Amino acid sequence: MSNFDALLQAAKADPDSVDFTDLRMAYADSSQYDPYRSSAEHYIAICELLKSGEIESAKDRVIQSLNGHYLDIQMHVLASEIYEMLGDEQRARHHARFAVKLLGSICRSGNGKTPETAFQVIDLAEEYAIMSMLNLECVSQELRRQGDHYSDVFRVRLADGSETLIYFNVDLLVRVWRERGDGEIP
Fold it and tell me: How many independent structural domains does the chain possess?
């Protein structure tokens, strides 16, 4: 069993028993790591199922998605909401706690205000989860290099209509991009 698998198994049993930064970094070092994985299709399908009142089917789809990638913050948020609808408070709390622990790990990595204090993310979905949590609307995005480090820089609109920049350290994603030979990095 890999370090990631052991940490994930422990976190599934009790989210408070694991350091979620260690968990996220173990995932990034594992053979299962795919920073470009997207759950967008699952997310849209689950939302459609919920709109049509098919809560059990939505639950099955969210479980399927989490079985593919258990560190997906948005799926844990959906799972928590679905279990709440089904009256399963224990599972709702588990998934809510898992999402909070994942978000907390990212937020403790920096404040996102500069390249030096960028949020450390392990996949693209974490960027959007943080922006959603902070109620930020994406206006534009660009990849920037500063020395040996890469940042995804988002121009975001705040609730009051003003705009600012938010930085995400994407060194781990760039490493995988290069290893795969997916093209030139600026």
Answer: 2
In this structure, are 37 and 68 located in the same domain?
yes
b/e sequence 125-161, b meaning 16+ C-beta within 10 Å: bbbbbbbeeeebeeeeeeeeeeeeebbbbbebeeeee
Higher-confidence position of 161 and 175 = 161
Global model pTM greater than 0.85: yes
Alpha helices by DSSP H, 69-157: 73-85, 89-108, 124-133
**Angstrom distance (rounded) from CA 96 to CA 78:** 9
Neighbours of 69 (CB within 10 A): 17
- The whole domain housing 152 covers 110-180
Boundary residue ending a domain (107, 139, 156):
107
Number of H helices, E strands in the chain: 8, 4
pLDDT band at 37 (very low <50, low <70, confident <90, very high): confident
- Examine the domain organization and report whether 167 and 155 are in the same domain: yes
